Amino acid sequence: MRPSSVLLFDLGGVLVHTRGFAAVKAMLRETAPAEVLDEQAIRDRWLGSPAVRDFESGWTSPPVFAARFLEEWQVSLTPEAFLDDFASWIERPYPGAEGLLRFLRGKHHVSCLTNCNELHWATLAPFLRHFDSPFSSHLLGEIKPDEQAFLAVMNELRVEPEVVRFFDDSRANVQSARGLGIRAFLVHGVTDVRRVLEEEGLL
User: Fold this and answer.
1) How many CB atoms are closer than 10 A to CB 145?
2) Rounded to an integer, what distance in angstroms lies between the CA atom of residue 159 and that of residue 6?
3) How far apart are alpha carbons 86 and 77 in whole angstroms?
4) Is 75:3 a contact under the CB 8 Å cutoff?
5) Where are the domains of the chain?
6) DSSP 3-state assignment of 180?
7) CA distance 136 to 39
8) Which residues contact 189 (CB under 8 A, 6 or more apart)?
9) Is the confidence at residue 15, as pLDDT, over 60?
10) Using CB atoms within 10 A of its CB, is residue 10 exposed (0-12), middle (13-18) or buried (19+)?
11) For site-directed labelling of 26, which of 11, 33, 46, 155 has its Cα 20 to 30 A away?
């Protein structure tokens, strides 16, 4: 049966606490100029990074990703040390996230679409049981903000854009979803998500 209402969530920065961008900033601090260390600049560079895109589209292995990332970003770590740190970037769901998802699943089809990879997906496994349909870029072979990532999810769920509500902490991802006719919201954390859900009459 096709869902009549789909709530589609990003994970990191929306429902799950991560330290990814803070970790990258710390790696770059010794060599990068101040403007490169701006959080938005790091976010934008991350989304466009060839090394990151290939890894989170499922096309490269962790060792290949580590070597390419360190070269591309000019970080002076060994691949082994980088991967050890990288694996720990996913920390925990935000307080209230699991309870909110349990409540929403009684009313809507609850899904996630996250740019992820095999290492972080394994860490997220216990949290993913709270979704009717969890989607990750590394399994889809498509990555946000590319429109194909959203189209792949809608094709899998057999729904049209007008029944989807999408929540992400990246402006580029939100704009891409809106370009397809999806009602999309820029949010940061569970409190922000709740506010939008209430405003939209979805709680």
Assistant:
1) 19
2) 8
3) 12
4) no
5) 6-17+91-199, 20-88
6) coil
7) 23
8) 13, 14, 94
9) yes
10) buried
11) 11
How far is it, in rounded angstroms, from Cα 14 to Cα 27? 24
CA dihedral angle for residue 38, residue 28, residue 50, residue 171, rounded to 10 degrees: -20
Please give the helix or strand (H or E) that residue 135 lies within, else none. Answer: strand 133-136
For tokens 């992820």, name the residue: 116
Q: How far apart are the C-alpha atoms of 55 and 120, rounded to whole Å?
A: 12
Domain 6-17+91-199: give its CATH architecture. Answer: 3-Layer(aba) Sandwich (3.40)
pTM comes to: 0.93
Report which of residues 37 and 19 the model is more confident about: 19
Nearest to 120 by CA among 98, 154, 88: 88
Q: Which pLDDT value is given to residue 30?
A: 66
Question: What are the residues whose beta carbons fall under 8 Å from the beta carbon of 38, sequence distance 6 or more?
Answer: none
Alpha-carbon distance of 70 to 76, in angstroms, equals: 7
| Positive or negative: CA dihedral 108, 114, 119, 124 | negative
